[in-house]
# Entry
Amino acid sequence: MRVTTETKAATRQRILEAAQSLFNRQGFDAATTRDIARAAQIAAGTLFNYFPTKESIAMCLVAEAHAQAVEHFQAGPAQDASEPLSLEEELFAHVAAGLRKLKPYRKYLTAVLDTSLSPLHSDQADGEPSLRVAHLEAVSQIVARHKRDAGPSTVALHLYWTLYTGVLVFWSKDASPRQEETLALLDQSLAMFVGWLSAPTNSTEPPERRG
Amino acid sequence: MRVTTETKAATRQRILEAAQSLFNRQGFDAATTRDIARAAQIAAGTLFNYFPTKESIAMCLVAEAHAQAVEHFQAGPAQDASEPLSLEEELFAHVAAGLRKLKPYRKYLTAVLDTSLSPLHSDQADGEPSLRVAHLEAVSQIVARHKRDAGPSTVALHLYWTLYTGVLVFWSKDASPRQEETLALLDQSLAMFVGWLSAPTNSTEPPERRG
DNA sequence: CGTAGAATATGAGCGTGCTCATTATACAAT
DNA sequence: ATTGTATAATGAGCACGCTCATATTCTACG
# Structure
C-alpha cells in the first residue's frame, strides 16, 4: 500500500500547487474548483476527497507559509543578540517576518481572513494546529519572556488577534510601494497593545485563580 | 405614476420584513433568496430589482437599526449633564447604545461583518451613507469634543474600527447571560484606544499639512 | 493467476445566488 | 377607446461549491 500512499501525497501537492498558481493569476473567487481540479489532473469531485472546502485549500497554503515563517524566526537573530530588543520591537520583528513569508498570498488573503481567521472560528481539531493558535502561542512566549510572569490573559490575546487581523486586512489591499503603510499601521497597533499591556491591571493572566 | 412608486416602496418594505423574519428564524445562510421572495410575494428574480445582493438586504437592515441608534443617542442624555462624562465613558455609552439597537440582528451580524463592514470595502456611493462612515463620524465628533482639536487621524479611526468590529464579532457569538463579556471586552478595547490616543504623538490629525 | 474486498476516482446532479431575455403593466397622448 | 412607451415583474437558466451513488483501481489471500 506504499505506492498509493505516495500517490495520494503527490496528488495533494499537485492540488496545492495548482491552486496557488490559479489563485495568484486570477484571484480566489475567479479560480473555480473545476479549474483547480483540471490543473491538478483530477476529476472535479476528487478535489473534495483531499480538501473539505475550497477555502481550506487557501488556508492550507497560508498555514504552510506561516509555519515556515515561525521556524525561520525562531532560528533567526534577536534571540541573544548584543543589545536585546524591547517587547514592542520583538513583536514587530515577529509579525514583519510573517508578512514576508505570506507575501505571495497577499492578494487572496482576505478570502481566508473572512472566516478561517476569525477569532470565533473553531480551530479544527484535525490536521495541523491552526494558524491562529500557532501565532498566538508565539506571541505569548515573547510576551512572557519580557514580562517575567505567566502569559498574557485571554482578553489580551483576543485584543492582539483583533489588531493583527486588522493589519492583515489592511495589508491585503495596501498599494503603497513597499507596503510601508502597513508597517506604519503595525507599528501603531503594537504600540497600542504594548502600552495597554503595561497598564497595571492588564499585564498578565494570574498564575492561579485567587482565593 | 404615484401608484407605482408607492407600490415599489411597499414591496421593498415587504422584502425587508420577510428577510428579517427569515434571517432570525433560520439564520442568514439557511434563508434562501427564493424563500425571501416567496414570503414577500414576488418572483425570485424580482428581489434583485430591489437589492443587488442577498447580503445587501442584511446590510440594509443593520444600517437602519444603526441609524436609529445614532438618532436616539444624540437626542439622549450625556449631552450636558450635571457631571460630564470622560471620553472613554462617552464612547462606551455610544457603542453600548448601538449594541442595544443591533440586538435583534446579533445572530446574523457576522454575515455582514465579513464583507460589508470590512475597513476596505468601498463605501458605496449610492443610497444612504454606509454604517461604517456614519459610526466613525459620530466617534470623530465625540473625540474632537474632548480633545479640543481637529478630529482623530485616519490611522486612529482605522484602529478604532478594527477594535470595534472585533467587539462586534465577539458579541455575535457571546453566550454569557446578558452579553456582559462583550461589555468587558468593549471596556478594555476602549481603554486601549483612549490610552493610545492620549500618547503625545497620536492625539489628533494635524489641521493642515506642515511645511 | 483469480478473485474478493477495501480504497480511491469519477462526473452527473443538487441547491445556491444571481442574470437577462421576455412578458406584463401603468400611464400619457391622441 | 386605442396606441405607444417606459418601467417593472417574471422565471428559465447560468456557474458556482459541493455531494454521492457508481465505477475503477489496487492489494492481499487462496
About this structure: Residues 117 and 132 of chain B are 7 Å apart (CA to CA). Chain B has a mean pLDDT of 87. Chain B has nine helices and no strands.
